[in-house]
Amino acid sequence: MTRRVDQPRAKFCPNCGKPTQSVFTGGRHRDTCPECGFIQYATYSFGVGALVLRDETVLLVERGIPPIGVWTIPGGFLEQEDDVYTAVQREVYEEASLNVTPQGIVIVRNRVDANRNDMYIVMLCEALPDQQPVPDGRESTQACFVHPHDFDDMNISVFTRWVVEHYLAHRPSPMQMMTVPGYRSDAIIFGNI
Ligand SMILES: [Zn+2]
């Protein structure tokens, strides 16, 4: 796929503040710091969403931040120190006040626009049966378990609707966290068994 996307620029080095120079490296010109060696590569973002099912219903939140008023699965961006497990648990707790246990990855979306290259993964999660969702009133203005029959009457995100309906129709087995003996302990590996 060919897209009109510009290489991100850095006129000044974000590390030391020196003016950068355009240097051909890694197959293209990139703003590079002559002082400390910083190279402006692509800008990325990484998000995670939670698919939380309860009986025949799914946890959705009504967004209080743009796009305001749209219903989606709960989720958000990863912080620098996050792995996807801790990020998805925090985001569901923030937006719906539910404690969840991630079961694995069921959907991955890659979206490229002029500003960034974004990856978003959807994790199947389990919530304890007796917890009731509560919105935080800021990021989420409502939080509840919804039956897919009610999607037609809601302002639901096209992608969220597809995620729920695709999962319920096909029940793909999630890519689960695996341990790789002898491999570095700071990496989380997902794979199918
Ligand atoms: Zn520098």
UniProtKB/TrEMBL annotation:
GO cellular component: cytosol
GO biological process: NAD+ catabolic process; NADP+ catabolic process
Keywords recorded for this protein, A-Z: Hydrolase, Magnesium, Metal-binding
GO molecular function terms attached to this record: metal ion binding; NADH pyrophosphatase activity
Domain Nudix hydrolase: from-to ranges: 43-169
Necessary cofactors: Mg(2+)
One protein family per Pfam: Zn_ribbon_Nudix
InterPro entries tied to this protein: NAD-cap_RNA_hydrolase_NudC (IPR050241), NUDIX_hydrolase-like_dom_sf (IPR015797), NUDIX_hydrolase_dom (IPR000086), Nudix_N (IPR029401)
Protein name: NUDIX domain-containing protein
